[in-house]
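Translate sequence into structure tokens.
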Amino acid sequence: SLRQRRGRAGRVQPGICLRLISQRKMEALDVKTAPEMQRVPLENIYLHLCACGVEDRSGFLARTPDPPEEVSVNLACAALQDLGALDLSSADGLTPLGRHLAALPCHPRLGKILVLGCLLGVPGAALSICGAMCGRSPLMTTQDTQKRAGWQSERNRLLEELGHKSDHCVWAVLMQLWMTEGVTRWDLCRKFGLSYDRMSAAWSERKHLCEALVQAGFLPSTFLQTERENE
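Result follows.
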């Protein structure tokens, strides 16, 4: 990737390519990035293979252009079994929960949070937690010690108000504040040290997950509108 960028510096006319990386670190990098199939968790792929009716999932993955290691496939299978998503005695190898998880556009662990959140009557909080966990954490850090201390103080105060130290519940509260009418989102980000772009992405992901739950029949089509009206 670094070499590819070098070619762009001279595409139109002679140029200079600057790489903000030490020579030692650059020499230690792999010649090329490993294929995605070999470097990401395989739980979603394994679920989809089951849902598509593929019986020999391991054999199918072994025949792909860039096959993953067998241990990665076994780890994915074990993780799904721990979640209660697999039933090797069924035709597709899935439990009812597994079939629902295969239909959701997120990691199965987050999908189970969503399903249980709907069944337990707290879909809004579950959506907020999963929306925040789908991407990079919106929490920022800084070299400015005074600013960092201020952020940490506000975060600790929020934890005290909640009465516990659950990161998940904090995300549910912060996302609720983000959605509350009358709250200035930039002020919220400055107060708690949040990235505006990542919070916006988490909010967008929350809506995307909500739409998936509506399509799966877990939520009514008017859920988001009703949620805004009840704020």
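Note: The first helix runs from residue 2 to 9.
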